[in-house]
Structure formats: structure tokens, C-alpha cells
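Supplementary Note 3. Input sequence used for the single-chain structure prediction.
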Amino acid sequence: MKYGQILILTLALASAIFVAFASEDGGIIFTKEDAKQTKYLDPSIADVNISFEDAKNKLISENSEVTDESINGELIDDENFGIIWRVSSKTTNGKSIFSGIDASNGEQLFVYDGSKNVQGKDNISKDAALEIAEEYIESRVSADKINDLEFEHVNYIGPNADDVPGTYRISYARIIRGIPSVSDGIQLRINAETGEVSSYRKRWSMNEEEIALIDTEPSITDEKAVEILKEFMSNEPPIGEEKASTVKIISSNLVWKEDDEDKTHLAWCIRFMDSSFAKDDDLPASVWFDAHSGEMLLFDYSRN
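The predicted structure, written as C-alpha cells, is reproduced below.
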């Protein structure tokens, strides 16, 4: 392990979240991790309620600019979303749209819409972006699920080129028994010039029956978790005791977090910095501890 490189220590991997990135031309770039989580199914023998034609019509209904002849799709069993139709298409302006349709009920679970990445100047305020996000969610999510959502944050991402608008990234967490989930919730991206939603992702997979058996009162305090963190850092050669002694806690919160075996933990999520971080650094390190056993679930300490 070289300290000069980005250091991400994972003592127990968290369950991976589906990740796709929009390229400049609106296409989608997949990570290697996506392939590990995907199982392709044969539509002719799979027991699903939604056909490819249904999924295709859903995509068209969501965007009138889709060109019918360019639509492609495949039935997959995704680790995070379950059995879905993964549908892609081109729009009349040559951009790409990529969507995941629940094969049991036809719900659109995620969409990445490159056709919304138009050029121009930012006109949409943060408050307006939040209103757009809330209206979009209300049009797609049932009332009972909306009641279980809690706004997390909105971040403005500046344009990466001249005459290209910025983007608002907005996140809502799913709340279960009064505690937010790390993985479940809704994320949107909104074009800061037009106010159009360029991507939408909804995950709702945590097992409430399993969570019902977990005591929501932690067995260890966040102060104890910080002690464990400092001891770990002191014994990690690329970091060491000197930096561990300068740890400054930014926040500590209880969350629901899954491990690599999809087991859910009540966990302390602690965000922190040490002397190797700049005072105005907006990307602190993070660590998650099981709030009952003190086991470290994930340690994310990224330094250049």
C-alpha cells in the first residue's frame, strides 16, 4: 500500500451500490463492479409481470424525444435493484438515455438522461432545484414511501467546460425506525440551466423485518467509536500515531448499513479530518462502526 496513492481501507466491504457515470456525449460508462452484480436472464422463461414491450413503452412515456427504433433492452437480476429491464435508447438530438424498469410492477427505478445535458448558463436557484426534485419524486413515488424519505443534502457541481450548465445533485435518505439508511433512498441530478432532471435513482431494498430485530439503542457511544478509530489509525503505518492524535470529528450519526453479505448493522457513521487535511477541505474521511459490537465496517481515508 503506497501512501502517495489514494488509500481506501475496507475491513469489511459495504454492499455495493449501483454506479454508472454519464460520459460527455450522454453515454453510460460502467464500472467493473457492475458486472459482478449483474446476472442476465432469459426473457422467454423468466417469470415476470412486465414485458420488454411494457418497459419500452415506459421509457417512451417518460421522454417523448426517444427514437423508437434505437431502443434496446435486457432482463437482468441486479444485486441492488432485483429483476429489472435495463433499457437504453437514443434521442432525437443524438444523446443517450438509460433506464431500469422493475420487471414486477413497471416502476422506473433509475434513469440517466443525457439528452438533458444542454449548453447554456445557470438560471435555476438551489431552492428552485429542490422544488423540482420534490415534484418529480411525488409524481413517481407512493405517499407511504415519501413519508419515509428525509432530505439529506443538495450540492452544486460546476460546469466542466465553457457554455455548459452546472448540475444540482440532490439526495434523500430512506428512514427506517427513525434512522437513515446508507444505501436506500433517492438521488437526483438537475440541470442548473433548464431545471430538467438528468438522472434519477431509487433504491428501497433494506429488509425491514431484519431491522425490526435490531436494538436501535447503541451499545457503544460515538466517543468509544472514536477511540477505536484513533487506535486503528495509530497502528496503520501510512497514517501513524502523530496524525491519529490530530483527528477532528466533523459529525457522528447513527445509520443502517449493510455489509458484503447483505447483513444490516446499526452503525456509527463518523466523518473526520486530521492534520493532513486542509482546514477548508470539503471531502473529509469517513468510517463506519457497528454500534453494538464496535466492529469496523468500512474505513474510507482518501489522501493524495
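The helical segments are 32-36, 52-62, 126-138, 143-146, 208-211, 222-234, 240-244. Residues 1-36 have pLDDT under 50 and may be disordered.
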